[in-house]
Amino acid sequence: MSALAFTRILYRGLHSSARRNALTKMTMPAMSPTMTEGGISAWKKAEGEPFSSGDVLLEIETDKAVIDVEAQEDGLLAKIVAPDGSKNVSVGSTIAILAEEGDDLSGAAELAANATKEASPPPKAEKTPEAPKVPEPSKGSSPPYSRKATAFSRRPIAKKIALERGIPLSKVKGTGPDGRIIREDVEKYKQLEPGVIPSTPADSSADYVDIPLSSMRRTIAARLAESKVQAPHYYLTVDIQMDKVLKLREVFNKSLADKGAKLSINDFVVKAVAKALEDVPEANSAWLGDTIRQYKKADISIAVATPTGLITPIVKDVGSKGLATISAEAKALAKKARDGKLSPHEYQGGTFTISNLGMYDISHFTAIINPPQSCILAVGSTKPSLVPSAEDERGFKTVNVLNVTLSSDHRSVDGALGARWLTAFKGYLENPLTFML
Q: Which helix (H) or strand (E) holds 402?
C-alpha cells in the first residue's frame, strides 16, 4: 500500500447558504521510486459512493503488477477523472475528486474538467487552411455522441472485456440505450497509437490480431533494450554434473514428504549462487555509472513468467537461509507474481538474477542482464550425458549434466572474474554437502 497524493481545494458553492466545502484532488500515486506513469485497472467504488479508511478505492496497473490502493481516511468519491482502462496516466495527474459526506458536490464536475484540461498537452501552433463550414444537421438527425452521457455508463460484460483487452472505455462510443456501452461496442473497438490512421477498415476475417501493450510489457521492452544496447554483455558457459544434487534432493524430499514440502533443482541453484557470491563478492554488484556498488547480501531475483510478461521477485538474503526456506519463499513469490499481487518491495532491487528454462526442456540459452545488476545466470535442463570414466572398464559412464550460461556486464565484472564465480558455483553444485559447512 502506498500513501496517496492529495491536494486540498476549498470550494464555495454558489448557493444561498454559501456553505464552505472541501473537495480533494486524488492524484496518481507513485507506487515505486522509478514509477512515472501507470494505468487504472478498475475503480472499486462508484461515483457518489462513500468509503471508509482502509477500503480499496481502485486497482492501479504498474509496470510490474496490479496493486490495490486503499483509502487513508473516510470520504466520498465525488467524481472519477481517469476511468477504468486508462493507460499511461502520469504520476501526479488528477484521477478523481474526493469529498466528505454531506459536502456540496456541485463543484466536483468543474474541478474534474479543469484537471482534464491541465493534463491535456497544448495543441501545436500550425498554420492550417480555414476549415470548410459544416452544414447544421436537420431537425430529424440524431444528436451527436456525448462522452458525458457514456463515460461511466456500461454493462458489466463490456467492462470485463475492456479490462482484459486493455481498452479505455472513455474512448469507446456506446450504441446501446441512452448511449450505454455494450459488448459489441468494445469488441468492435480497435485501439490505435496517437496520430495513426488505419489504412483499411477493421476486418473480422484478418489473419492477425493487434495486441495493445500493457504498462508492464512496455517497461520490459524499454529496460531490456536499454540493457542490451548500453551494457557490454559477454557470456560464459559451463557443464555441471548434477548426480550428487539429484541424490541429495531425493533424500531431502523423502524427509519433507510429511510436511507437504518438496525441493526443486532450482532451490539448489539459488543456494549455490549465494554461496558462490560469498566467495566472489565482486560479482554481487551493480553498475551505477560513476561507481560500482558491491552488495554484502545475496538478494536473488528469480525470473517468473506471468500472463502479462516477465517479473523477477526477490528471495532476500539467501546466504542466511536453508534450502527448505528458500523453496517455500520462492514458491510463494512465484504464485503472487502470476496472480499479479506482488508488493513493490518484493520485486524492486535484487543483486543477482536467475532465469531458469529447464522445465521447458531448453538445454542452453543466454539471458539479458537485469539492470543495474552485473550478472544473470541462464539455467537449462538436466540431461543424461556420456563422459570419460577411469572407474568403468568401458571407459565411459552416464551422468546427469546441467548447462548454465553466465551473462555479465564487462564494465563491472570482467572475464576472469566471471570465470572465477562460475567455477565456484560449479564446485558447490557438484559437491552440495558443502552447503552445510
A: strand 396-409
Q: What cell numbers appear for 187 in the block?
A: 469488441
Which of 221, 223, 219, 242 has its CA nearest to residue 231?
A: 223
What are the strands of the beta sheet with 300-302, ordered from one edge?
233-241, 396-409, 375-388, 352-356, 300-302, 314-315
Clarify whether 414 is annotated catalytic: yes
Binned at pLDDT 50, 70 and 90, residue 276 comes out as very high
Q: Which of 55, 233, 279, 410 is catalytic?
A: 410
Q: Per residue in 379-396, pLDDT tens?
A: 999 999 988 877 777 788
CB 176 within 8 A of CB 182: yes
Q: Tell me, what's the pLDDT at 145?
A: 40
> Residues for the chain: how many in total?
437
Confidence of residue 241 (pLDDT cuts 50, 70, 90): very high
Beta strands in 343-395 (DSSP E): 352-356, 375-388
Catalytic residue among 74, 317, 392, 414: 414
Q: Where are the beta strands (DSSP E) in 218-281?
A: 233-241
What are the backbone dihedrals phi and psi of residue 13, each rounded to the nearest 5 degrees, phi first? -65, 145
Cα gap 204→221, rounded to integer Å: 29
Contact 263, 419 (CB under 8 A): no
Residues 6+ apart with CB under 8 A from 307: 338
Among candidates 105, 106, 35, which has minimal Cα distance to 69? 35
- The model's pTM: 0.62
| CB distance 353 to 300 below 8 Å | yes
Whole-number Cα distances in Å, 179 to 81, 90, 171: 19, 29, 13
State the helix-helix crossing angle for 265-279 and 243-256, rounded to 10 degrees. 120
Domains of the chain: 5-119 (2.40.50.100), 216-436 (3.30.559.10)
Cell reading at 238: 559451463
